[in-house]
Amino acid sequence: MHSRPDRELVEAVLARRPEAFERLIRQYQGLCWHIVQRMVRNPEDARELCQDTFLRVHLCLHQYRFDCPLKSWIGRVAYTIALRHLEHKRIPLAEYAGDGDDNRTIENICDNFDLEAAYTKDETAMLLRAAIESLPPLQRMLLTLHHLEEIPIPEIARITGLATGTIKSHLFRSRLRLRGVLDAQKGAPT
Q1: 38-47: long-range contacts (C-beta < 8 A, 24 or more apart)?
Q2: Number of structural domains the chain divides into
């Protein structure tokens, strides 16, 4: 389940080879920033939490067992640190519909809505960005990891520890909310 480059990088860091840990940071700082920033949104907090993430990675790398990709393991550390930060600040992670009506269409996860195409169109880009930023932290992070970073749902499940069905449910609700915002802007019925 591990790749040779992952093993070589981890072994180099653990052997304290010069610049090995800096290489690890360079390789995974984008993923770390994406997860943390999408959850906490405050740039100062995000920078501090990313530093905390790599400090934790450095301290705990000897515990990594190569049972998942290094990317997933580091993503999980970043997610856990951001999650704890939000819990400490008592910021709700997600909105829940509570009525159960989403379950009938939850498996139709693609439902002909192309987030990336909508995100790049000039006339809707600013509106869509604002709508994405208005999502609760967990839904915002899951949506952008899956649709913009193109990380598959099973990989997101490894990072977050959430069940794939839970991730699909959050993605469905997020896309439904974004579609409502875009349809309202266009004057179409929702």
Answers
A1: 38/137, 38/140, 38/141, 38/144, 38/145, 39/79, 39/82, 39/83, 39/85, 39/86, 39/137, 39/138, 39/140, 39/141, 40/82, 40/85, 40/86, 40/137, 41/133, 41/137, 45/85
A2: 2
Is 96 inside a domain boundary? Answer: no
The length of the chain in residues reads 190
Give the pLDDT confidence of 126-156 residue by residue, as tens digits.
Answer: 888 888 888 899 999 999 999 888 899 999 9
Contact 60, 70 (CB under 8 A): no
Q: Is the pTM of this model over 0.90?
A: no
- Same domain, yes or no: 79 and 109: no
**What is the C-alpha separation between 13 and 22, in angstroms, rounded?**
9
Tens-place pLDDT, residues 53-104:
999 999 999 999 998 899 999 999 999 999 999 999 888 777 654 444 443 3
